[in-house]
Model the fold of this input.
Amino acid sequence: MSTPSKAQLLNEVHTLLKKRYKPKPDPSPGRLSVLEGIVYGICHEGTTREQANQALSRFKDDFFDWNEVRVSSVDEIKGMLAGLPDPEDRAYRLRRFLRQLFEKTYGFNLDPLAKKPLKESIKALREYEVFGSDYVTAIVIQQTLGGHAIPVDVPIRRAMVRLGVAEVDTDIATLRGILERAVPKNRAAEFVELLEDLAHDTCVEGPPDCPRCELRKICPTGLARKEDRATNKVVAAKHAKVASTEPKPDPAATISDGDTAEPPKPARGKTRHPK
Done:
């Protein structure tokens, strides 16, 4: 049987995950602004979309505008990132971006970029340090610029390595290119959401929960772990069988060399003495 191509494998992955996780409609009223997409990308990397949406909502509800966020302390910004990993680093990156943006444009509007050619918009955005993250770049392309992008963070990369789509040393930008060539644009957003659900549900950091995973029948890691469990059961059963057939020590066995036998006990009764 021939090995399926990456496109065939990922199509099967998409179909199986869709049965389990049932993609939900996007609750947002419309496309994010470019600035909101950047903030969302900073919040979303390595987390779930629910956590990122909650963080973005807190910024919009608790601050008057983005300028207030710009002049806030890192600790104040961290408060909006409660529950996210590395909140201090995220807070610093967000404030640094807002300060760079204000120094360059004296404002907080990047939406004109959405009307320019994609390559031109990306080139302009790469002037900001936050776009050193390939994940943030892909989020902005997908969520705000209308381009084809599949954001890949550490959890999604972990799942792709276990599925055999990527090697252990494949970097995130290279993996993103592999996925974008294999998954069409009209399925990309849903595909990413399903991978995210997988990575935060069963294909977690540390030992994955393979028996509960929908991909256990096609995932090389899941199949290998299943075989290991079966082998371990066979070995354990053999050991138990050998232990049950071993002869038990006889308490009445002869005394070993060097041991001294107990002297015979005197016979009971009256002892006669010579007259």
Summary: The first helix runs from residue 6 to 21. The chain has one domain: 7-208. The two ends are 108 Å apart (CA to CA). The chain has a mean pLDDT of 88.
